[in-house]
């Protein structure tokens, strides 16, 4: 079975290393130019192909419903990527689960699984924006309840071909045929968590993977999240070896630590400036503050390959995680730099991490 092959492969290669894109359409801070949606889409597909050829394990695409982001439908984009790649796993990063119909979500990713020969996955989250709520007719006052109900229904769809179900926010199902069925026995689903321990606890209780969103600060802050996740899983009788943890975050690799800071600061600063501006926050980080964020004891994966290896291993000591997903194309960064980072991650970082974490 595909899932069994994947588990055996994970045990043999150690930690999975991948990349993801949220497909922002921000201007390049050095040139002031913003590429077209078409070019951004083409470059995302090209990045996935490069990652696959370089031997990375996972490629993800995020969901947004805004004019300053290029991707609103991850399964469509991932289906295109599936046709130009051979082995890399394909995941959403993230699916805004509150505002998507779970049946439609399952059908879309089951279709992707068939097209990709068993490589589809989902990271379910809440996203950085609320645009999808009015767009698809959902009430913000039901924010948390929608997420939980949609997740529970998706898990049932994943298990059964004929589903009977009743909930509060969606029409009932009675012996509904859920098709197509994926190649994998079940589509792997992770819950993206960045803010509350309660969300990590729910992921453990329901038996999903846990994808930690760590964009800065001290990674020790997230250790209670992982502890609660595993405790919650154990209390429901789940085998801890089946409970997978991923770390996701921003990354940039260059020849030296100082060069990485020099090259990445304009794009990181621009990304957060644009994002904060949309949320009505006038916040930017100074160069000095940014350098502090890149220090050895902080979570931001910026530096030489050796520095990145050491940071990943420090995270591994804290979390014992099975996957790292790096976001490397933010803030209007030109594709040339993205391609260089894919190459460094795949050839200089990933082999060392796999060796150090191999069971």
List keywords for this structure.
359 residues, alpha/beta, TIM Barrel, eight-stranded parallel β-barrel, two-stranded antiparallel ribbon, 12 helices, 17% strand
Task: Please render the helix and strand layout as text.
Elements: H1 2-13, E1 16-21, H2 37-54, E2 58-61, H3 74-82, E3 89-92, E4 95-96, H4 102-115, E5 120-125, H5 132-136, H6 143-159, E6 162-165, E7 173-177, E8 189-193, H7 197-206, E9 209-213, H8 223-235, E10 245-254, H9 257-278, H10 287-293, E11 301-304, H11 305-319, E12 323-327, H12 335-357
Parallel strand pairs: 1-2, 1-12, 2-3, 3-5, 4-5, 5-8, 8-9, 9-10, 10-11, 10-12
Antiparallel strand pairs: 6-7
Helix pairs in contact: 2-3, 2-12, 3-4, 4-6, 7-8, 11-12
Sheet with most strands: strand arrangement: 1-2-3-5-8-9-10-12
Q: List how many beta strands DSSP finds.
A: 12
- Alpha carbon gyration radius: 20 Å
CATH architecture: Alpha-Beta Barrel
Q: Which parts are unreliable, with pLDDT below 50 for 5 consecutive residues or more?
A: 1-10
CATH topology, anyone? TIM Barrel
**Overall pLDDT confidence:** 93
Number of helices: 12
* Secondary-structure element string: HEHEHEEHEHHEEEHEHEHHEHEH
CATH superfamily heading: Luciferase-like domain
**How does the overall form come out from the CA principal axes?**
globular
CATH class: Alpha Beta
What does this structure look like?
The strands form 2 sheets. An 8-stranded parallel barrel has the order 1-2-3-5-8-9-10-12, surrounded by 8 helices. The chain has a two-stranded antiparallel sheet with strand order 6-7. It is an alpha/beta fold. It has one domain: Alpha-Beta Barrel (TIM Barrel). Strand 6 and strand 7 (173-177) form a beta hairpin. It is built from 12 helices and 12 strands. The two termini are 21 Å apart. Mean pLDDT is 93; it is low at 1-10. The chain has helices at 2-13, 37-54, 74-82, 102-115, 132-136, 143-159, 197-206, 223-235, 257-278, 287-293, 305-319, 335-357, and strands at residues 16-21, 58-61, 89-92, 95-96, 120-125, 162-165, 173-177, 189-193, 209-213, 245-254, 301-304, 323-327. The longest helix is centred in the last third of the chain and has 23 residues, at 335-357. The chain is globular, with a radius of gyration of 20 Å.
């Amino acid at each position: 079975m595909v899932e069994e092959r994947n588990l055996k492969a994970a045990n043999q290669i150690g930690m999975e290393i991948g990349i993801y894109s949220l497909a922002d359409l921000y201007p390049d801070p050095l040139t002031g130019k913003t590429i077209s949606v078409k070019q951004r889409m083409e470059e995302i597909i090209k990045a996935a192909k490069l990652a696959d050829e370089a031997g990375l394990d996972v490629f993800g695409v995020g969901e947004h419903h805004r004019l300053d982001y290029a991707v609103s439908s991850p399964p469509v984009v991932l289906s295109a990527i599936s046709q130009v790649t051979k082995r890399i796993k394909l995941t959403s990063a993230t699916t805004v689960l509150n505002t998507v119909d779970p049946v439609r979500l399952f059908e879309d990713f089951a279709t992707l699984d068939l097209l990709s020969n068993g490589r589809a996955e989902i990271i379910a989250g809440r996203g950085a924006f609320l645009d999808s709520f009015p767009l698809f007719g959902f009430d913000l006052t039901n924010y948390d309840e929608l997420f939980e109900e949609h997740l529970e229904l998706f898990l049932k769809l994943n298990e059964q071909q004929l589903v009977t179900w009743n909930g509060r926010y969606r029409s009932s199902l009675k012996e509904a045929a859920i098709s197509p069925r994926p190649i994998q026995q079940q589509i792997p689903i992770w819950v993206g968590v960045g803010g509350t321990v309660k969300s990590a606890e729910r992921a453990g209780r329901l038996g999903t993977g846990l994808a930690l969103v760590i964009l800065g600060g001290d990674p020790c802050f997230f250790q209670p999240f992982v502890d609660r996740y595993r405790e919650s899983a154990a209390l429901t009788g789940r085998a801890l070896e089946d409970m997978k943890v991923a770390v996701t975050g921003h990354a940039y690799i260059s020849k030296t630590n100082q060069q990485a800071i020099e090259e990445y600061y304009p794009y990181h600063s621009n990304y957060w400036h644009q994002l904060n501006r949309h949320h009505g926050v006038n916040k930017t980080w100074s160069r000095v503050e940014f350098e502090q964020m890149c220090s050895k004891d902080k979570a931001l994966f910026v530096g030489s390959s050796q520095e990145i290896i050491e940071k990943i291993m420090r995270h591994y000591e804290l979390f014992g995680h099975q996957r790292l997903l790096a976001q490397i194309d933010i803030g209007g960064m030109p594709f040339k730099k993205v391609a260089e980072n894919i190459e460094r991650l795949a050839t200089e970082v990933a082999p060392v991490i796999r060796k150090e974490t191999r069971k």
